[in-house]
Every structure is written in structure tokens, then in C-alpha cells.
Amino acid sequence: MRKIVVALIALLPLAGTVQAQTVKDLLETLKVKWNTPTEPFKMIGNVYYVGTDGLASYLITSPQGHILVDTVMPDATSQIKASIEKLGFKITDIKYLLNTHAHIDHTGGLAEMKQASGAQMIAGEADKPLLEGGYYPGAQEETVLNFPPVKVDRTVREGDKVTVGDVTLTARETPGHSPGCTSWEFSVKDGDATRSVLIFCSGTVALNRLAPNPTYSGIVADYRRTFARAKDMKVDVLLAPHPEMYRMQDKRAMISDGAPSPFVNPGEFNAYAATLEKAFEDALAKQTAAAQEKKG
Asked: Of 149, 200, 148, 150, which is closest to residue 178 (Cα–Cα)?
């Protein structure tokens, strides 16, 4: 319990400073921003933002059907539905639901959206048991982190593709944040240009234990494999599960007819991944030191 509380406290800058003692209290604080509504909008090409102010959900459209990447907290799923319809699209035209990682703030509405749309559920292979069990890895006792389980119709590994019409998303394995953490890579038209887009799963340590009792076996090697892969990835447009990870609101405010898209920023992903790698190594050193000190 205490380790999860400490980890959640590290997330509180997203929601402001509060006095809280339990996981439930801390989660309720985070939900204030996570569940705050925001207007849906066209980001770039055929990519639309349909999440909340604090949690991202992306609708990628085509005449043959749509793909929805991630949902939000269970009690805010209705906002995604309303946003999709407000943009003029139909829930029932969603062919696939994709997940970046199996944590409540990005999976909470998957079961509801699957039932409403009839879409197939696709996720990273190692996250399948978490999605179908509805729990946080290594913290099954923390029931406040549980979410409605969802049946996974198809699992993916590195390089696997999901296609609807002329839209193809490629799975990139970026484990660590969760065992099956999957980033999604695809291209969009931006005027006369074609841009590479990455919906990055995540590389933060967040609630994870790295040492001496890791959240899951192999987690440290997974994080390092992800950061090594990130160095070679060429990305024009960075998107992520939390809007603040890529300054979504600032960029949104800069959208203007005839002006270059503020979401196009080559090199942003690589720079962001480098900061995550340093934070990871710092966290690993601190957790290791604390464990050694406890041993005496």
C-alpha cells in the first residue's frame, strides 16, 4: 500500500497539491482533471482528439471505418461517445479498439465502447491477461485500480499491423510501463506532405516497482529496450496517453487556418524519450539504494 501511495503522490502535479492518505483519495484527486471535459477537435489529417482534458483518446477515421486508440476512466466514457458523435462520426463505425497499456486511466471504457461499437479489441500480447482480468500488474490487492475487464480479440507484437481502408497502424513494442506496452505508428496527410505519427505508450515509472521486488519480471530490461528503440525512431508528430506529455493544449491553441500544424515537431519524441530514460535510471538507483539501506 505505502509504495503505491508514494508513487501516486509523484503524479499529483497533474492535479494540484492536496492532502490525501489513501490510494483511493489520491486517485479521486487525479480524476478531477482526468474527468474534466474538453471539446473534441481535428488534430491533423484524419486524427481527432476525443478524450478528456486530462486523458487522451484518439479517433483515426476512414470512409471504410474508424479506429479508436485508448479510452478514459470508466465514469467518463460517455464523454468519448459524445465527442465522437459531436464530430459527426458514428460509434458503430468503429472497427477496432486499440490500447496502449492496461492501466485504468486508459482502459476504463474499453468494455463499454466494445459493446457499443461492436469493434474488435486489439492490444499488446503481454497485456492481454491484465485487460481480461481488469487489474494493475503486481498490485491486484489495490482494487481501486481495477477496471471493467474486456475480452481481447487479437494480440500484437512488434511490426504487426491493423488496417481499415487506407489507414494502417503498426504496433511498436515499447514495454516497461506495462509488460505489453504498445505504441502505434502510422502516417497522415498534412496538406501536400505525409507525416509520421506515433501514439507513444509511455515510458514513465509511475506506480512501477523496479527493485528489489519488481512489478513484473524483466521490467528493467524492458524499459531499457524501449529507450534504445526510441533513439532510432523518426517521428514527425508525437501523441501520447496524457495530453501534457506533448503539450497538447498549447499546440491546440496554436491551430490556425493556413498555418503549419503545431503538432508537427520532428525530434520532439526523441528528446522526450531521453528525459524519460534519465528519470527511469534515477528511479532505479533510488529504489535500489532504498532496498539496500533497508537491508542494513
From this structure: 200
**C-alpha neighbours within 13 Å on the C-beta side of residue 89:** 31
Measured between its terminal Cα atoms, the distance across the chain in Å is 22
Backbone phi and psi for residue 214, each to the nearest 5 degrees, phi listed first: -65, 155
What the block records as the C-alpha cell of 109 is: 471504457
Cell readout for 118 is: 461492436
Q: Which three cell numbers stand for residue 24?
A: 483511493
Cis amide prior to 241 (ω within 30 degrees): no
Among 207, 185, 210, residue whose Cα is nearest residue 198: 185
Nearest to 97 by CA among 108, 87, 88, 86: 108
Going residue by residue through the chain (296 aa), what tens digit of pLDDT does each one get? 444 443 443 443 443 334 445 778 888 999 999 999 999 999 999 999 999 999 999 999 999 999 999 999 999 999 999 999 999 999 999 999 999 999 999 999 999 999 999 999 999 999 999 999 999 998 888 899 999 999 999 999 999 999 999 999 999 999 999 999 999 999 999 999 999 999 999 999 988 999 999 999 999 999 999 999 999 999 999 999 999 999 999 999 999 999 999 999 999 999 999 999 999 999 999 999 998 887 76
